[in-house]
Design brief:
single chain; about 270 residues; alpha/beta; 8 strands; globular; binds NADP nicotinamide-adenine-dinucleotide phosphate
Length: about 270
């Protein structure tokens, strides 16, 4: 059951309200900081109360107006709690960032882990996107930022469910963007490569070599700039842009083999 702890209402006189799911660590925490600096009253969503409270305090000390919503986005009650928190607010921006991975999801992962990836990365993201799109359409404008991954562009052996879930995010968001074109609501898909966050540890993955890992903070900043400029897709970093271009244009069989090699399958 989700608990709503709206710690501060925010004066809603600045750039409006931005919701960030998965704000208790990593990329979501960085999204929350950058959006606050840009003048948004940010609604911080996640399950870990201590982490959200620490971020809330930090943002308040910097003169911002955050609100904490403790919610599990997989649960209907959790999703409802987020919309309750923004019911009376001028909602302008929504970041679906909460997500997780699972190694060996395709063949050896526990059923619960697979279900959790699907429910968080696909089900919750879709339902929140649709509900946010309705709210933003009523206001005739706003931005939805959906966090996918470079894994969206190629199958990901050893993380099959995760890679497929991110391919879903990319396809779903591209379709939603076209549906919403006349409404003034824009949708931007963000595709990071490996980032220095809690993601790998929680997924049971080893961190890739340092050279391939980027910091979350500049990724969040550049992704928000791209989304606010009206861009459809932001792939983080030159190397990741080259890799995703290869995945998009090379023969599918090559892409599968290269991906399997990169994931250490053979
Ligand atoms: N790190 C990478 O290498 C990488 C690469 C490409 C894409 N991404 C994507 O970037 C996004 C952010 O991940 P990250 O790297 O910042 O990892 P992270 O540090 O593990 O952060 C994940 C966030 O999602 C939240 N979350 C997970 N399940 C949730 C649930 N059921 N309900 C509410 N919140 C939930 C977590 O909060 P609580 O546990 O407190 O609920 C946490 O705040 C994810 O969508 C991930 O797939 C990451």
């Amino acid at each position: 059951m989700a608990i709503l702890t709206s710690t501060m209402k925010g004066d809603a006189t600045r750039r409006g309200t931005a919701v960030v799911t998965g704000a208790s660590s990593g990329l979501g925490e960085s999204f929350a900081r950058h959006l606050s600096r840009r003048g948004y009253d940010v609604v911080l969503v996640a399950r870990r109360a201590d982490k959200l409270e620490a971020l809330r305090r930090e943002l308040v000390q910097c003169g911002h107006h955050p609100t904490v919503v403790l919610a599990d986005v997989r649960e209907p009650a959790g999703r409802a709690a987020i919309f309750d928190a923004v019911a009376e607010r001028p909602l302008n921006l929504w970041v679906n960032n909460a997500g997780l991975g699972c190694v060996r999801a395709g063949v050896e992962c526990e059923e619960d882990d697979v279900t959790s990836v699907l429910r968080t990365n696909i089900e919750a993201l879709s339902l929140l996107s649709i509900a946010a799109a309705k709210r933003l359409s009523e206001r005739r404008g706003g931005v939805i930022v959906n966090v996918a991954s470079t894994a969206a562009f190629s199958p990901t052996p050893t993380m099959a469910t995760y890679g497929a879930s991110k391919a879903f995010v990319l396809s779903f968001s591209e379709a939603l963007r076209e549906e919403l074109r006349a409404s003034g609501v824009r949708v931007c898909v963000v595709c990071p490569g490996a980032l220095e966050t809690e993601f790998h540890g929680r997924a049971g993955l080893e961190m890739p070599p340092k050279l391939l890992v980027r910091a979350a903070d500049p990724c969040a900043r550049a992704a928000i700039e791209a989304a606010l400029r009206g861009e459809d897709l932001y792939v983080d970093g030159a190397l990741n842009r080259a890799v995703t271009a290869f995945a998009r244009f090379a023969p599918r069989r090559w892409v599968q083999r290269v991906s399997a090699r990169a994931m250490g399958v053979w």
